[in-house]
Write the structure tokens for this entry.
Amino acid sequence: MRGRPAGGNRGPSARVLAVFLLPALALYTVFIVYPLFSALQYSLFEWTGTARQGFLGLQNFAALFTVFPYDEQLIVAFWHNCLFFIGTMAVQNTLGLLFAMLLHRRRFGKRLFQTLYTLPYMVSPIVVGYLWLLLLRPQFGALNVLFENIGFDFLARPWLGDPDTALPVVILINAWQWLGFPMLLFGAALAGIPDEYDDAARVDGATGWRAFRYVTLPLLTPAIGTVTVLTFIGNFNEFSLVYAVGGSQGNPAFSTDVLGLLFYRTAFEGGLNAIGRSSALAVLMFVFIFGIAVVANRYLRKRERELT
Amino acid sequence: MSVDVLDKPPVTSHPVTRRGPAGSQQSKVVLVHLLLWGYALVAVGPLIFMVVNSFRPGAEIFNDPLGLPTGAYFGNYVEAWQEAQFGTYFANSVLVVVSAVFVGTAVSAMAAYPLGRYTFRGHGVFTAYFIAGLTLPIRLAAVPIFYLLGSMGLIDSRIGVALVYAASGVPFSIFILTAFFRGLPRELEDAARIDGAGEFRIFALVMLPLVKPALATVALFQFVQLWNDFFFPLILLRTTEKYTLPVGLTFFFGQYQTDWGAVFAGLVITTMPLVVVFLLLTRQVVNGLVAGMSK
């Protein structure tokens, strides 16, 4: 066969290499890399519909902070993403760690509980959103009916219709869907801790909370770091669930609006210069999310080295 | 011996008195079980509720939201499948997702093979170039992708969505598969080479069968993501006949919100394929999730 290497280790010829690499290279470059660079370029120009006008420099970026309604909505949406992250860390990842601890070294039922807890992850965020919308309906919503039946009438409220409760409830719904993720990752990390650490802690008289705080928790730092960074990336890219619950406007009254929705509105429901401004927003979001993730990762790796 | 480890640390406020009499140990075990089963109910309850209600007529759901089905009623499914076009959406989802996963996995396996087995000029650059894609949020390139497909005549086309989907799986698949190819022993390859097999034969007949588990993980991981994706069909498809399930569901929900029975059936139709896949292949999915998370 032609293009066959003469020796075992010399590797294939350039032509053979090309045949192996080109399909993936072409697909990935055309549909992912090129569009991402285009977004950067788009953001520097003014657009009238799909026609490119003059070079604007950073004016599209500036417009996001100065022109109504972007200036108001950007801050609100950004703050909601921050709350999303804080709430998810506090509820989803803490519970994930708790359940990972409870299931660790359980001989019976570990796989069963893992499967049950991870099941909601398999469900499309759109389905999750609609399902909870139906469950939490003010009238005929199963959960509110349940609350009334057991005498907790005060809990029967329009949870997703009230601007004060909509965002926290969406965060809880999101946590419900994703809890299996941190649980599995923490479970894997716990399984990697040698038994000697626990035994040593016990010999030193450290039990329960103290053993957890001073032995287990430090050893989990790498896993906690990974979960934190991935939660951050996931939360700042939030879109489908909030779209299902509150539409592209983040209803009620923008109370569930996040950056992903704002980007969608700017790009596909925005006015004349939609392309320029939405691309600027995309670049801004990318720089922010990517930047924080890289910095956080570097910091965590450093912490890890100090601890080991 | 392992009870301390099983403890739920943050709740108890008296760490010193924990090694108390057997009674308190027992109550802790009970508490742990209560917690585990309690959350199991929270995790699965809504899904069971969804399935149960999909077998109840709409009027019955209104009258008694918490009731059990009085019999298996398939009317919702008939309505959703035929009148609400869920049959069409389902076929579109299968078509788009399966072809995208197939193409994405195939090209990734081909690229991962030389990257995992050989060192050649540009090896490092190619690897870095592909791996960089792991961190790129593709959705932010939505507008350029929209116009790119427009220039190719692929707006409102299932092929367009499938191409974007196939490309989106490439970085992760190459990342995982390269590692697997690297781990394979060299002897097999040498033996095949002595027998006169060329590079393509070695790849297709010797190496590929050996990385089957990795191929399954990678394909499954893509399948879950793409089956559930809502964003790209939302922006790239316009005719309802071409909608995949998540967008079709949105369209349907907007119009028939009050037809609860059919809505629940639609939710179940969208969800079932993945739940079946998940229950059949829990181990691979779990591995895939953890691999995907620790990327």
